[in-house]
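Protocol step 4 of 5: obtain the predicted structure for the target chain.
Materials: sequence only (see below). No template structures provided, no constraints applied. The aim of this step is simply to have a reference model before the mutagenesis design in step 5. Sequence pasted as it appears in the construct record:
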Amino acid sequence: MEGLITSLSELTGTNLSYLFNGKHLAWYASVRFTILAAFFGAVLALLFGMLGASAKRSSFAPFRWFGSGYITMVRGVPDVLFFLFFPLAFEQFVEYLFSLNACTVAERASGKWPPCNAAQWYLSTSEYFVMACVSLGLVYGAFAANVIHGAMRAVPESQLEAARAYGFTKRQVYWHFQVRQMWIYALPGLSNVWMLLLKATALLSLLQIADIVQWAGKLGAANYFPAAGLVHGDWRWRYYIVLFLFYILLTFLSELFFRKLQKRASRGMALDQ
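Step 4 output (structure tokens):
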């Protein structure tokens, strides 16, 4: 019995030392990229959504065309394609600006990219992370704009007309009545947009960001050490199960959060009657 307990203690100690080695601690720390990307991406998506919905409702035709084009085109582009295109296009645009001052005419005409070493822009993880957040905001801002536009149209026109009759300006009617009341209609759709954005954080590794997905693939792959031989075989499925449970937990917490938001937004609304 004592031998069994000793063996179990040694096995537990070995497993704990393995799960808390340097690589696993880096994996746990990489969760911050997922959480921060989801948060800042959601903030930007809400901002772009408000701007896109306002532009689509504008009485100025060019703004209306721009808002409709943004909502329609961005929603039709696959997320992965846009996620790869925007950072790459922005990076090459910056390198093009660098090359105008740093490279000679002959180097710019050579066809190489970047034209010279001085025009090379070496991006850090932080810069890639910022571009990832902007990409998430642009993509899911189009979905949020469509939801917000529909929610604004759902606000009863009679209430807006009553506000105008009381002498409120157009801007006051928009911000204090239409925007205030549209949240009750927008939150269910925005919660779906948030869920989609949350799932898209798994694409961070495409921008050379060592996130939880990339680390899970590295740690789960067959691990060999010259001195010890095969440490473990292909365990990636085990690590991906952990990621599966992690995203399920985030989904559960998100549902609780949006449920409370919905309840708060319903206060004083006629829908509660």
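Step 4 remarks: Confidence is low (pLDDT under 50) at residues 1-11. Residues 6 and 198 are 44 Å apart (CA to CA).
Proceed to step 5.
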